[in-house]
Amino acid sequence: DAKTTQPTSMDCAEGRAANLPCNHSTISGNEYVYWYRQIHSQGPQYIIHGLKNNETNEMASLIITEDRKSSTLILPHATLRDTAVYYCIVRLGGNNDMRFGAGTRLTVKP
Amino acid sequence: ETGVTQTPRHLVMGMTNKKSLKCEQHLGHNAMYWYKQSAKKPLELMFVYNFKEQTENNSVPSRFSPECPNSSHLFLHLHTLQPEDSALYLCASSQRGGAAYEQYFGPGTRLTVT
User: Fold this and answer.
1) Is the minimum CB–CB distance between B93 and chain A shorter than 8 Å?
2) Is A16 within 8 Å of A77 (Cβ atoms)?
3) Mapped to the 3 state alphabet, what secondary structure does B8-70 carry?
4) In A, which residues are within 8 Å of B1 by CB distance?
5) CA quadruple A43, A82, B28, B103: dihedral positive or negative?
6) pLDDT by residue (tens digit) across B54-109?
7) Are A75 and A60 in contact (CB under 8 A)?
8) In terms of CA atoms, which chain B residue is nearest residue A39?
9) Residue A96 in 3-state DSSP?
């Protein structure tokens, strides 16, 4: 699976949009981009995933660049409860293996 | 609630003890996983079960022994652990077979080996 690069940490003001970037320049055509988050000492929580097109659900939006070498997770109106470590993972379809990196520690501030 | 439960939530055990961690999923999934998360380290995949068959063992020491009696239950049997095995142990499940599928995680068992 392709390697991903994320900033170590980010801050965001409460109520503002949080934009979390991820670089995956070696992604192949059949690899999906997944986002998970982990709130302190809890199990990771699935957020969203995509292949080529932008995706939106009740939690977030995923913007994938046309060349698919990077993506951005958008939390439209961040709240204090969105403070967590956010993981960007690239994985082959049908591959069981989910490789977590260090992720981005997002801190939402009042 | 993700539909994946783990018991116990906290466990303290001595190095000579034998204990088991239990995971149960109520999602109708057919794949289950054990992960380990040590302090300040990324999650490490330990074992993968597809349709009750172990399909992956990421060089995990034999003092960790998984068991998957059916597609809804997963155990991790522990014996003669070391203090460095203290970590958060996470169970996850997914529906294998589609092109893309997400994993759902339980809350984890916080294990301390004394």
Assistant:
1) no
2) yes
3) CCEEEECCCCEEEEEEEECCCCCEEEEEEECCCCCCEEEEEEECCEEEEECCCCCCEEEEEEE
4) none
5) negative
6) 777 778 999 999 999 998 999 999 999 999 999 999 999 998 766 667 899 999 99
7) yes
8) B107
9) coil
C-alpha triplet A88, A89, A93: angle, nearest 5° = 145
| Locus of tokens 């060349």 | A67
CA B80/CA A4 separation, integer angstroms: 36
- Please tell me the distance from the alpha carbon of residue B36 to that of residue B38, in angstroms, as a whole number: 6
By DSSP bridging, strand B109-113 and strand B10-13 are parallel
For A1-110, where are the E strands, in sequence order?
9-13, 18-23, 31-38, 45-50, 55-56, 61-64, 70-75, 84-92, 104-109
First and final C-alpha spacing in chain A: 37
